[in-house]
Design brief:
The protein has 133 residues and is mainly α. Helices cover 77% and strands 0% of the residues. The mean pLDDT is 96.
């Protein structure tokens, strides 16, 4: 069976395509042409690319490979979350609302938000991949 975006939408804390587009637009507008924010965004994208690569390969891994790579995958995911938080913290210091980050949720208060944050990181990679044609 081939999974589709509709299958993803059935998952707990999934984000709609429209929601991800809106969050991305809000994030991009707040970053604007601020050089420091752009640098933080680039660092986020480097981490998100590594995480998305691991996540894409995850479905193809054997149980043994998953057990061997699980802690590495977790560390990649943690790094994506940390970089989202760093970017949001910087933007808040610049007087930006960062409602996009608030909407993704607090991974400490609700562990399911962790999945949504990772999903959004993968969405950013998806968009960048399409633009790299």
């Amino acid at each position: 069976m081939i999974d589709t975006f509709n299958d993803y939408q059935k998952e707990k804390k999934s984000l709609s395509y429209e929601q991800m587009k809106r969050l991305h637009a809000e994030l991009a507008a707040e970053v604007g042409d601020d050089e420091d924010a752009l640098e933080l965004y680039e660092e986020l994208m480097q981490k998100a690319n590594r995480y998305a690569d691991m996540r894409a390969r995850w479905a193809l891994m054997s149980r043994e490979e998953k057990m061997d790579q699980d802690s590495f995958r977790t560390s990649l995911h943690d790094s994506v979350i940390t970089h989202f938080n760093m970017l949001a913290r910087y933007l808040r210091m610049q007087g930006k609302a960062t409602a996009w980050r608030d909407e993704l949720g607090d991974e400490k208060a609700d562990p399911w938000c962790r999945k949504a944050i990772g999903d959004f990181g993968c969405y950013l990679v998806f968009v960048n991949s399409l633009l790299a044609r």
